[in-house]
Amino acid sequence: MNNAVAEPDIHDQLIWEAFIEPIRTVIVVDDEYPTLDSLTDKEAGEMKNWSDKKQENILSVREILAFARDKKRSWLIDVHDAKDVTPEVELAAAAHLHHSDLLVLDYHLQGDDGGGDVAIAILRALAGGDHFNLVIVHTKGYDGAIDKVIREIALSLTCTDPSLVLSEKDSLSIKTALSQWEEYDEEITSKLEAEISADTYLELRTKYPGNYQALFKLPAGQMILEILKGKPPELVIVSKQLALWLLIKKQGELEKQFSGIKLGSVIVGNTGGINWIKTEKLFVTVLSKGYKPEQFETKLMAAIKASFPSPHRLLLTKMRTEIEKRGLSAEAEILGDRYMQAEWLNEFLNPDPIDQKAVLYNTINRHWEALGDRLRLSLDGFANSLHEHFSALGRDAVLAGCGINKSDIGSQEALKRFNCFSSTKPIDRAHLTTGQVFRMGNGAGGEHQYWICLSPACDMVPGRGNDLIGSDTLPFVAVRLYPIADGLALKNATKNIFLFLNIDEAVCAFSIHKDGISQNPDWGQMYARNQGKFHDTNKLHIGSIIKTQEDLSLSWADASVVTQLRSEYALNLLQRIGAVLSRPGLGMNFKKLAQ
């Protein structure tokens, strides 16, 4: 007899630790279940909220209570009947729904003959909130089937895809060609349209967001190509234009079911009897009411696992739960160091701070770092298990499972974003300082000029004005940044002369050299009014010396700081500029060979 015990599934364990183990509160929303309010009314002799409660529903609630209060869970649980909640009004009556760890939601909250409008309103409110929610939609479905419920929920959380656009000329071309084809086959248009079902539309949005041409990777797209083989030879129909036209038409039909506001990308899966719908702040699985409460955890686990959350999603979720779980102990340890707190508090309460924004930023940053240091030890084992498990699966399998396009790795856009994140940080001062990039004026052709402040940070502290030019004016050294081709910057990124900056939501490459590589940087002495302090959000006045017909003069212009380098990158550029400015020029008289 084999007494060996099967090893626990590591993937299951990781999901349980990140998503299930942190659950503390559960709310059940069902218009047929008795609530605590109705029970107390009944005991008080008021039967108005009790007369329609069936025995089977009372037993169902008892099963849910037993499941939630099992010793291995000990979840707090409440029941809300949502009877008075309608999709037309604010869900103030059920505001606490936004703060549960797990919501068990009946889909037909207006009786079995009603629709899912109220449930959809609740799900939309959750998806648009700030709290991550796990939801089990518990439903009888339509005629016992739940596929339509899954589809309705997914569509209700979706919004119009802006990438589905076809020019009026191309649209007219498709309509004309199909009209001519109908002379041979009067049902051809409806045949083609029938291939784009709501499920096909959702699958395309899920697997290939923003890439309508990927329709031809799906069975529906393959069938459309097959139908096109039978078109009359004289007709010209571009398959890509036809696919786009069909998708736009289907989107128009479905649009009335969409959310009126953007709730983030929606990913839908339904394979092997396991379904899931996820947005940035919501994870939903739909279960038939044939499933009993003791199966909820297993089914929810299976749905999360099937959705294949990425290693980083699992890690971040675990980090968030660790803050809730161990944050208080870490907080007590940080606050318990009275000597360190004395110094930090003294700085925080400085009655005359040079830069209040910097004081607040440093206070948050120090406490956040201290909190992270104390929680990191509890995350090491989890992170190690993540690495071992997903490494064993193989990189390609993990990338595909996470919906990551392998071709994105090493692409220009990916490298630009990686380099930008590595080298820049949010603006952490209310005054100009080393490493801040500012935009000013208009150069030749009307384009903006970008400069970076490269004076040492100690020289940029407000209050160090030069009396020769006025105590209100702060001199500093700035270096001109030149836009450069992405390819050139990325091929030479390790030369440390390029910057990758997020300018107006786009990552752009710049160089400190005009030709990108070799010319000496263009630097200049500049001046900042009001000691370099911003007079509005990241805005200030910058002065530069210009040549006039008679003499030199100081010209002032509005400028705005657009981003800031991390200190190590700013120091690197500062050292490079220092080397340029300190060239010895010893009068060496060598001559080079003529070309």
Describe the structure.
The structure is a single chain. This protein has helices at residues 10-20, 36-43, 55-68, 117-127, 147-156, 168-181, 188-194, 198-207, 219-228, 239-254, 296-307, 311-336, 338-348, 356-393, 395-401, 412-423, 486-491, 567-581; strands at 25-29, 76-80, 102-106, 133-139, 267-271, 274-278, 282-288, 424-425, 436-440, 449-453, 474-483, 498-503, 506-511, 523-528, 539-547, 552-565. The protein is an alpha+beta fold. It has 4 domains: 10-158 and 259-307, Rossmann fold (3-Layer(aba) Sandwich), CATH 3.40.50; 168-255, no CATH class; 312-405, no CATH class; 412-581, no CATH class. The strands form 2 sheets. It has a 7-stranded mixed sheet, with helices on both faces. A 6-stranded antiparallel beta barrel has the order 9-10-11-14-15-16. Helix 1 packs across helix 11 (296-307), helix 1 (10-20) crosses helix 12 (311-336) and helix 12 (311-336) crosses helix 14 (356-393). The chain is globular, with a radius of gyration of 32 Å. The chain starts with 9 loop residues before the first helix and ends in a 14-residue tail after the last helix.
